[in-house]
Design a protein that fits this description.
Elements lengths: L2 H22 L13 E2 L2 E2 L18 E4 L5 E5 L9 H14 L5 E3 L2 H4 L13 E3 H9 L4 H7 L1
Antiparallel strand pairs: 1-2, 1-4, 3-4, 5-6
Amino acid sequence: MDARRRRMLRAASCALAAALVSCCLPLAAFARTDGGDAVLGCSAADLGISEERLPGIDASHAALMDEEGTLWYGRAAGERAQIASLTKIMTAAVAAEHLDAGDRIVVTPEAAAVGESSAGLAAGDEMSFGDALKAVLTASGNDAASAVA
């Protein structure tokens, strides 16, 4: 792996870490518990675990699973949920493993039409992967993430 790719991967990893930390820290003061949380497949209430002993997580959904697939803790873990910007962050991280900052990205009509959170890209726009990465991570651009993918 060349130095430029390592720097890009390191930058994407740092951005991911910073995003995760910034999402978690301010919410700690508002963390809540839910008596319906599951511990090893049973409700915490059924296991006699008081709400005070449950983790303070300010999230509508949560899951802690080991590599064998055992669900150790869950809150609404079986329900579908939108994962929002995490998809964009992971797209950036995976792309950084395979592309160099100077590699060219061309926005397809499909990528430009994504809508929602957008960096304002148009079909046919061309930019370096480095610039596309900035559009994904700073503008939270679904269009840029789709173009990179």
